[in-house]
Amino acid sequence: MDFSDCLADDSFGPIVVGCRDNFDFTVRFEQIFLSIVPNCLYIACSFACLAVLVRRPSIIEAQLARWLKLLLAITYSALQLAILIHGVRGGASTLFAASAAISLTSSLSIVSLSSLEHSRSPRPSVLLCSYLLLTLLFDIVQTRTLWLSSFESRGLNSARMYTSATAIKAILLVLEAQNKTKWLTPSTVSKEDLGPEGMSSIFGLSSYTWLNKLFFMGYKKILAVDDLITLDQHISSEVLQERLLRHWNTPGNAFVRRRFRLAATLARTLLVPLLLPVAPRIALTAFKFCQPFLIAAVLQYLNQPEDKLGIPPGKNVGYGLISAAILVYTGIAVSTAFYWYFHERALCMARGALVGAVYHKTTTAYHSSDSAALTLMSTDIERIRQGFLNIHELWANAIEVAIASWLLERQLGGVAIIPPLAIVLVCILCSGYINTYTSRRQKTWMGKIERRVALTADTISNIKPLKLSGLTRPIETLIQHMRVDELATASKFRTVYVTAMVFGYVPAALSPVVMFAVTARTLDVSTIFVSISYLLLLTDPLTYLFINAPHFISALACIGRIQKFLERESRVDRRVAVNIDPKSGESSPTATSAPRSSMEQTKPLVKIKNGSFGWESGNFCLKNMNIEVPAGALTLVVGPVASGKSTLCKALLGEVPLSNAHVVMDQKTAVLPIGYCDQSPSLSNTSIRNNITAFTGSLDEKRYHEVLAATMLLPDLKSLPLGDKTKIGSNGVTLSGGQRQRVSIARALYLNSSFYIFDDILSGLDADTSEQLFRRVFGKNGILRRRNATVILCTTAAQYLPSADHIIVLGGDAVDAAQGTYLELRTSNEYIGGLVISSAGIQHSEKSVTEYTVDEHHGATKDECKRPDPADLLPVTSSHVNDRERMMGSYMVYRHYLASLGRRSIAAFIIFGLGWGFFYNWATVWLKYWSSDLSSGNPSRTNSFYIGLYGLFQSSYLLSLLFCYMVCYRTMVATSGARLHKAALSTMFRAPLRYFASTDIGVTTNLFSQDMTLVDNELPVALTNVVMDIFNAIGMACVIASSSPFLVIGYPFIFAALYIIQKFYLRTSRQLRLLDLEAKGPLYTHFIDTMRGIMTFRAFGWISEGTSLNHRLLDRSQRAYYLLAMVQRWLGFALQIVVAVIATIVVVLATQLRSGTALTGASLLTLMTFGDILNFIIRWFTQLETSIGAINRLKSFSEKVESEHKDGEDFVPPQEWPEAGHIAIKGISASYRSSEEKASRNTPLALNNLNVVIQPGEKVAICGRSGSGKSSTLLLLLRLLEPESGSSGHVSIDDIPLRKISRDDLRERIISIPQDPIFVPGECFQFQLDPWDISTEDQCRDALETVQLWYIIADRGGLKGIFHAESLSHGQRQLFSLARAILRRRVRAQRNGYGPQTSLAAAGGGILLLDEVSSSVDQHTDREMQRLIHTEFRGYTVLMVSHRLEMVMNFDTVIVMENGAVIEAGKPNALMDTPGSRLKELWKAVNRD
After folding, report:
1. SS3 of residue 1411 by DSSP
2. Alpha-carbon distance 292 to 407, whole Å?
3. What CA–CA distance (Å, rounded) separates 344 from 331?
4. Residue 1080 CB: number of other CB atoms within 10 A?
5. Residue 267 exposure: Cα atoms within 13 Å on the Cβ side
6. How far apart (Å, rounded) are the C-alpha atoms in residues 1185 and 199?
7. N or C: which end of the chain has fewer CB within 10 A?
8. Is residue 1136 within 8 Å of 329, Cβ to Cβ?
9. Are 432 and 547 within 8 A, CB to CB?
10. Are 798 and 829 in contact (CB under 8 A)?
11. What is the DSSP letter of 1264?
12. Closest Cα partner for 896 from 883, 885, 912?
């Protein structure tokens, strides 16, 4: 500027020389870089913003604020115009005129941009606020220069105008940064949709003040998921999943290496979010590299001597150093905040995309018992987040290493840089070799986690039949062994991780030693500390690279596992929709027509020609099928066991993976849902009403009550606590087998469909219920006849064949099929001709049935299907942690965790941790002594002495680090992981059935999946780091305080501030961690329900609704997940500000009080890492506090879930017990109610004053309608159903009261076969047959040969072959269960001293409980099973629940039950001859005259 008298102002500078105390920029530099460049950039960006804003609607109502901003912006523009005019008139230079003109243009842009941003953007303008803040700082510098350079009136007037403009800009900045929430127009956008994050300014985002409301709320109250901030649409899982799958399926993916296809797809999907952290990370690097320059400047300033009056030279320099410290450390805090804010958003979006993709693949793949998806969406995705958490550090650290190497070479010369780089190179090679093991060991580890979690989830789903079978001990042992093996495999991976991490610290430990050894002759105080600062900038990034490399490789391995899952074969629907022309268009099916004599008169709905279907390659279950299914008719599919009935049903649904033919369907039917009812119903843990009406929108009351009446559920609903609002537990655990099946039938009937497929649904129903349900659903006036629906019913109940319009007979050899009417097949088909069907059944089929009319369902009112009590069931248990512990935590949790670690491990860990903290900081102190000795002019020791001991100290801290990590990651993790898992597993197996009825399967599974992941990964890492960093920080604090004793005075205040920060933070973060874990429970439950019932989902057309529900549950879980990450970054920002304060205090004290150079150098050097260490301490401690929530949940689960085992149940009966098999049940009443329900509701009893005495060796059959108490009697004998507390009766076996016997022993001594066969996924046939490992291979083979299954097992690899449930039909699985019981009987007889030659009658007695074991087999197989039971268990007391009345006639005694009580008992023939006998009525219901 012309009025400046300084000639240096015309030069570029940047530092002015010869004026203004040499402490300013030149005017030319300021005008170019502080005015022209930022204004030009802003003008260019403002045009882009204006182009976007003009197309948006107005959403802000506040006009006063808008006009105030406009007034200030116009005033600012007027001042810029005045500055330009004043400068031009005064003969200002061309550069000044250009700067003023561009400033005027930018001010005019502010006017337009401010107006549009105010009214059309919910968030304060990011561009405008950034520009105003940055240029405000620049204007302050320029204003200072103007005042210092101006001595004439012209210059002073310019300075005054500049000052006024700067002040107005500051006020405008404050107004622009104001939150606009209160001014939103409700009709355009809601506050809830945007949330505080979407309304925050750039300053609120950088300082995380948008979280303040959440913090205050969490400090005062117990948080729920609904209290959390709503996430914006950019994190919506639906949007992310759609985008990821679109990129995944694009042809461009073919050019990506197959190994990294998913990683590349994810990068393309999240390209912008992944790039957003780059700019703040570059800024962070720049600020970090300002630290050594600041240290050099401070040490240079302190080395300058004072004048004779004791006044330090360059007082302004001291002030400038203070300002530089504020700028550098505040810049580090702000850039770090923005960096992690953008990166955490990207990670959260990656989770949403991947979980959504895994669910989508689950819905498109073939059904499988493999539960890999559950582990992928939990453990694997958590590992991906952990591995990608520092993904930007990979490139940033590489850049920092290069810059630091260059700076170090400038400082010490080229020779000095060679030794550190050589050490770095060696470490890179060693670490690279070690990391080659990372991916393989990671995959092995994840595979074992996947298998354990899958087995645990399957166990929880089948806990009732598992307990019935007495398999809890072997399965519990198996899962625990899998856990121990998993931890051993994890230890191998962690060894690689620890080794790589220690190699990461080697450059930082040994490089200074070697470097100083090479340059010992040229060292002085400044050189030592500045060189170490450069070396820290070189080695710290390398350390992070080495530490993060295993995590990154592990993340890639998990990405590969997910990619492998996504690349699985998708389900191919081979059904072809065509317009099938009728063979004869003259006739059409009607609901009341007589049975057809031929297929020629009907229009076929489905055709299969020369079709073969199978589940395994080269093994077709059905071959050369040629069948037609008539439209509007009832088609029954029959055949012997393993003839392919279920396979045919699934082929019609398009669910069979192997097929060489198409299933041709009528095109009108193909587009509609299919009412499919599986042989093993899959139900959700929700109310009966929700199970029936799921995903169907609003309730159709008429249709709903119609299906309730048709399925005879109304009497059952009256007996349930809340009627149709009663929650039924995981997979319907609280219902009987018949009730579960009827709920499944009702769900299919409620569906709006014209085509129904029922797979052996009548097998689990009693004779009376089966008969009435058949008439009401499939009969001539049944609900499906009235709908004119096409129905396929697979069944083993031969009595219903005459009622069929069409019959398909599958042969035992699975080749071809016979079809026709019953009358045609009775004479032409050997299988049909061999079935025993009474003439009454034929007559019944030909008569007009009037028992169930069209109007009968109208009698079903709302009050009949639900209890008068409108209260809902207790909410599903999501956490056993009480409210106080959720907010405040509990030291007892730490005590519980430490007790699981082992005392010796803890002692060793503390010793090595102390060694690490001491030696790490003592080396820095040693540098202080060395530099002080050098600066004395006459060193008392040689450099070799100092370098040698320095090397010893550095090596000692390295070894301490190695041993500390090895103790924690190998010993402590394995010990605590095994103990905590064993305690939780034991609690789960000993929990009563009502726990599983009231708790979602996903909630319990989450304990063994997500919580165990925290116990194995985050928790030990947090514990190790917090302890080691505390030891380290204590030493660092001492070193920093050594520069000035006055700093020690401030430590209590600093520690108090830290305590307040963590106290305030922890109350919220602790709750967020629990909410994060709990919100995943419903997500996992829905995932499991989808996997288990995927065929039903697809048949019903529920995939879209299931996906939408998954999106909602995922978004709900994302809220806690995302906010937990953000509050952790809030903490990091707060701690960085604390470090900035400490750094400023150190520089102030050093420059104003003239501290010692060596001590100040050591303090500033330590401050370079002290900020990170302090940040790490609080961060790791809060990570520990939040991760300890997993321990709290596990501890509360173990302590608060009531065990079914009671005190006094410790009697172990003799080995041969029960040898006689005498059973006495006297005066027992029992119910499934919890203690709360017993106190508050008058719920009907499951057993009501039951009195039964069964003699040794007696064969007893229990009959009765579904829900009459038959299965409850078996549960009572196995102690799965508890007698009422006020019941005075007792239950005994062989005169020993059952209340004294251990329940596990009781269930193992009694041989029981449940209605639902139980198997262990992924285990071999021998383990399935003998999980107790008590038999030989020959004995196993003999048992399988007895039930005629060995030839099938032999074809599948023999006893060592892996068992797949899909490879056996349901009937074959029941035969397998019988083989298991036979094997147990034989081994038990052998153990009791009976040899193989002993007759079965003399081979000892026992008790055999059977619950509908032959429900899914044909008549021939049923007779064979009964023959085996009577032969193999000749001396046993047999108690069998059966609905097949023709089979119970061979039993000694028949008990008929109703409403939980015995209504009659006696010999079957005698009861049949008794007038009014209930057994006789049941018989007549099936065989009507």
Report:
1. strand
2. 10
3. 20
4. 27
5. 13
6. 30
7. C
8. yes
9. no
10. no
11. -
12. 885
The residue type of 1356 is R
How does DSSP assign 595-655, residue by residue? PPS-GGGS-EEEEEEEEEEEEETTEEEEEEEEEEEETTSEEEEE-STTSSHHHHHHHHTT-
What residues contact residue 880 under an 8 Å CB cut-off, 6+ apart? 1193, 1196, 1197, 1199, 1200, 1201
What token pair was written down for 1105?
Answer: 């609704």
* Token pair 């330090």: residue: 312
Q: CA-CA distance, 996 to 459, in Å (whole number)? A: 11
Q: What percentage of the chain carries pLDDT values higher than 90?
A: 20
pLDDT tens-digit series, residues 725-765: 888 877 777 787 788 889 999 999 999 888 999 998 887 77
Q: Which residues contact 27 (CB under 8 A, 6 or more apart)?
A: 1, 4, 9, 10, 145, 149
Location of structure tokens 């069944």: 795
Rounded to 10 degrees, the C-alpha dihedral 278/281/285/288 comes to 170
Which tens digit of pLDDT belongs to each residue from 1378-1397?
999 999 998 888 887 776 65
Neighbours of 1234 (CB within 10 A): 19
Contact 1193, 879 (CB under 8 A): yes
User: Contact 1378/1413 with Cβ under 8 angstroms?
Assistant: yes
SS (H, E, C) 800-845: HHHHCCEEEEECCCCECEEEECHHHHHHHCHHHHHCCCCHHHHHHH
C-beta of residue 642 within 8 angstroms of C-beta of residue 689 = no
- Is it true that the peptide bond before 273 is cis, omega within 30 degrees of 0? no
At 191, the amino acid letter reads K
Q: Measured between alpha carbons, how far is 1111 from 247 in angstroms, rounded to an integer?
A: 19
What would you measure as the largest C-alpha separation in the chain, in angstroms? 131
Token code pair at residue 1449 = 């006639």
800: nearest Cα among 777, 784, 819 = 777
969 vs 954: CA distance, rounded Å: 23
Spatial distance between the Cα atoms of 1180 and 1339, rounded to a whole number of angstroms: 56
What predicted TM-score, i.e. pTM, was given to this entire model?
A: 0.78
Rounded Cα gap, residues 303 and 62, in angstroms:
58
Tell me the C-alpha distance between 1195 and 882, whole Å.
12
d(CA 1228, CA 77): 93
Question: From CA 748, how far away is CA 729, in angstroms rounded?
Answer: 20
Q: How many CB atoms lie within 10 A of CB 304?
A: 11
Strand ranges, E, within 1193-1265: 1223-1230, 1247-1254, 1259-1263
Are the beta carbons of 909 and 1027 closer than 8 angstroms? yes
Residues in the chain: 1489
Beta bridge partners of 1259: 1438
Instruction: Yes or no: say if 458 and 371 are a contact pair by the CB < 8 Å rule.
Output: yes
Long-range contacts of residues 1197-1202, Cβ cutoff 8 Å, at least 24 apart? 1197/880, 1197/984, 1197/987, 1197/1007, 1198/983, 1198/984, 1198/986, 1198/987, 1199/880, 1200/880, 1201/880, 1201/987, 1201/988, 1201/991, 1201/995, 1202/991, 1202/992, 1202/995
pLDDT of residue 1487: 62
Paired tokens of 361: 């693949």
Tokens of 1442: 């059966």
Q: Which among 1194, 260, 1176, 1095 is positioned nearest to 748, based on CA atoms?
A: 1095
Which residue from 450, 244, 441 is spatially nearest to 361, judged by alpha carbons? 244
Residue 306 CA neighbour count, 13 Å, CB half: 10
- Nearest 5°: CA angle at 963, between 962 and 969? 90
